Each structure stands twice: as C-alpha cells, then as structure tokens.
Amino acid sequence: MYNEHSDSRFISQLTRNTFAMVLAGGRGSRLMQLTDHRAKPAVFFAGKFRIIDFTLSNCVNSGIRRIGVATQYKAHSLIRHIQRGWSFLDGRFDEFVQLMPAQQQIDEVQWYQGTADAVYQNMHLLRRNKPDYVLVLSGDHIYKMDYGRMLAAHVKRGADMTVGCIDVPLAEAREFGVMGVDENDRVVSFLEKPADPPAIPGQPERALASMGIYIFNTRFLFEQLARDAAEPKSSRDFGKDIIPHIVPRYRVCAHRLADSCVGMSAGGAPYWRDVGTIDAYWEANMELTKVTPELNLYDEDWPIWTHQEQLPPAKFVFDDDKRRGEAIDSLVSGGCIISGSTVRRSLLFSQVKVHSWASVEDSIILPHVDIGRHAVLKRCVVDKNCRIPEGLVVGVNPDEDRRRFHVSKKGITLITPEMLGQGDYLNTP
C-alpha cells in the first residue's frame, strides 16, 4: 500500500515519465437534450467549469503534463474549451494538452470503435513521446485525485496494470464494472455490470467498482492493444475486452480512491460522482450550495483550472420590500445581474440575467440565460442561451411541464432553447 510519506522525488519522476490519455468522445445520452449539442465532458458544472476540467486538473496538479484528449461526438464545444482554457502548458518544457479527434487513422472507414480503439489509433503519438507509463482516464467524472500516488503504488507492486476503484455498496455495484480482489487487492476477476457482484474480502456488503482509470506499463499496453486489434470479434473496449483478457494472465492490481483522494475529510468517504443522468447532474450541483459541501472548490493547493471569460462582477440591484435583488445559499458567477429578484439554493453560470419579481429556487442556470419578469423556476436545469418568457412558471405543475419540457424521474425539469422554440437563438454549445 502506498505510504504518503514516500519520497516525493520518486513520484515526481514517475509522473514526468507518464502520458495521460483522456477519453472524452462520449455523448452521455442519459443527460438527454443537455448533450444534443455537446459531448458529456463539455457539459457545464459547478458554476464556472466543464466536467472535463476536473480530470485535466487532476493531471496537472499531479505533475502529469503530457496529456492527450481523444474526442469524437459533437466535439466543437469541447475542442474550443480546451484550446482557450488549457493552452497555458509550455511546450518548450514538453508540457501540453493535445487534442486527438477521431481521424480514421487506422481504417479509413472506422471512427473510434471503443475505449481501447481510441488509444490504439493514437499509438504512434504515444510512441513519439516515449512514456514509461500510460494513464488512461475518463473525461466525464467529478473527483479530485492525486494520480502520482496511484503511479507509485503501481510501480511498487510490480503490476502490469492497475485499475482505479471506488468502494460502493453491493446493491449499487450492479451498475459498474466490478473488480473481484484477494486480500492484497490483486484483481482476480472482472465483471461488467454483474447481477451478483463479488464482495470485498472482509466486507460482505461492499464491492470495488472500476472508475475507468487505468495505468499500464507502456510496452505491455501496446502488446495488448495490438493483440486485441487482431481479434475480429472484439468490441475494442477496455472493460469488455482488454481487462477480462488480462486479469487471469497477468498481474493486475486494484487501487482504491481512498488511498489517493485529495481533500477527503478525516473519516469521510472519498468524493466521486458520475453525473450521467439529469437527476445525478442536478444533485451533484445542488450539493455545492451547502454550507460545507463534500467537494471543496476553494482548495488553493489543488485548484480546478478552466477557461474563464473576462467578465464584470456579479451585480445585485434594488432593495425594496417586494423587489429585492438577492441570492441565498447560491453560487453566482461573473457577469450575472440579479435585478429585483430572488435566487435560492441555485447555481448561476456566467452572464445570467434574472429580471424583477422573478424567483429561482433549487435550479441550475447555464450561461447566457435571460429570465423574464415574474417567472418562477423550481428544481430546473436551464440550458445555455435560453430566454425564459415573462411570467413562465416551471416546477409547480409536473403534468403541465411535461407537455413542453423534459421532466426526470425525480421531478427535475430540463429546459433547452429548442423546447422554447428558440433553437436559432445564439445556439452555441
């Protein structure tokens, strides 16, 4: 097990010799119309960030500064964000975030066929950089993790592959790829969304779920990708093909998030969220309005980096008894104007305007939204560029809301410009 007092220079050397591949090509269809114009990693989160910022920030803060981002589904928004927000790494010191769009590099007919294929098609770029280790990451989860600690554990245990895992209740494990492990956390089995997940030794009610984080020795990875590419029946996926083949034949170890999570409180659980549904997305954002949220965005030692427009401060105007501009238990970003209206337990992204006598409660309002006078929004997710008409009431009558908008299983209403008949209005993702 990794000791936090291990030689930091040893970890620094490991991170310098590592190339990170961030897989960011997925749509995230369970987010419904929120991903009609953008890939899931480009979805806005926490008032000013995009989801992918958390994975990229983990890389940079860990000292891994050679990063490739594989894109595919509706990547324009994601590419633009990375170009604007992640160009600060200095190529003169061999530091970069390099975009790797699907370019049909191996087969002129095929795009990326799976997670493993996305890495396989970019093997020539990996070879050019000559890393000792390849860190494969998903670009669509929210967490803070020091990958250097995971690398140190990988090397010290002599693993061919290490899988990042999170401890989950056995009942929830059916939604994940589950690692069966022995007493030393060596992986002995891997099952994709099993009906009967294997429990952690000594913890019959818990299981180890894969986080989609993998460390490979580079030569070993190349061998496995080439072998898999030659299999005509393979789906070219790490979870479905690569890992099940490797586990019974090579040394695969599990690394628990609790051993490398950043900012975890004493005795607390490590923070990790898959915001893959409207309900999960809403809940994870709403957690941030609490007095002390589990995810600390104010940690100066582990900042979350992003592209940030140069905007004026948020502004609150009018102080009459029935027309007061105020926000309570909320996050309000730059360029917002709350004019004689009330915002409670909500997140307002940049350049949101809330006009007089409007009310916003328990809602996520994405950038460039204009909320008209007397409008009422409760338990909503409002997509970028929406113009909420004066007097519109949402979140009070679910049956009425379903006629115009998408209402989730837990009663969260998603509003997009298209639903409002505004699909042609500044419709940039």
TrEMBL record:
Cell membrane listed as a keyword: no
Positions marked as site (Could play a key role in the communication between the regulatory and the substrate sites): Q72, W111
PANTHER family cross-referenced by the UniProt entry: GLUCOSE-1-PHOSPHATE ADENYLYLTRANSFERASE (PTHR43523:SF2), GLUCOSE-1-PHOSPHATE ADENYLYLTRANSFERASE-RELATED (PTHR43523)
InterPro entries: ADP-Glc_PPase, ADP_Glu_pyroP_CS, GlgC_bac, GlmU/GlgC-like_hexapep, NTP_transferase_dom, Nucleotide-diphossugar_trans, Trimer_LpxA-like_sf
Catalyzed reactions: alpha-D-glucose 1-phosphate + ATP + H(+) = ADP-alpha-D-glucose + diphosphate
A GO molecular function held by the record: glucose-1-phosphate adenylyltransferase activity
Role summary: Involved in the biosynthesis of ADP-glucose, a building block required for the elongation reactions to produce glycogen. Catalyzes the reaction between ATP and alpha-D-glucose 1-phosphate (G1P) to produce pyrophosphate and ADP-Glc.
Residues reported to bind alpha-D-glucose 1-phosphate: Y112, G177, E192, K193, S210
E.C. code: 2.7.7.27
Family the UniProt entry places it in: Belongs to the bacterial/plant glucose-1-phosphate adenylyltransferase family.
Lineage: Bacteria, Pseudomonadati, Pseudomonadota, Betaproteobacteria, Rhodocyclales
Pathway: Glycan biosynthesis; glycogen biosynthesis
Protein name: Glucose-1-phosphate adenylyltransferase
Highest taxon of the lineage: Bacteria
CDD domains: ADP_Glucose_PP (cd02508), LbH_G1P_AT_C (cd04651)
Assembly mode: Homotetramer.
UniProt keyword annotations, A-Z: ATP-binding, Carbohydrate metabolism, Glycogen biosynthesis, Glycogen metabolism, Nucleotide-binding, Nucleotidyltransferase, Transferase
Pfam families (UniProt xref): Hexapep_GlmU (PF24894), NTP_transferase (PF00483)
Glucose-1-phosphate adenylyltransferase/Bifunctional protein GlmU-like C-terminal hexapeptide domain ranges (all copies): 312-415
The UniProt record lists the keyword Nucleotide-binding: yes
Nucleotidyl transferase domain residues: 20-290
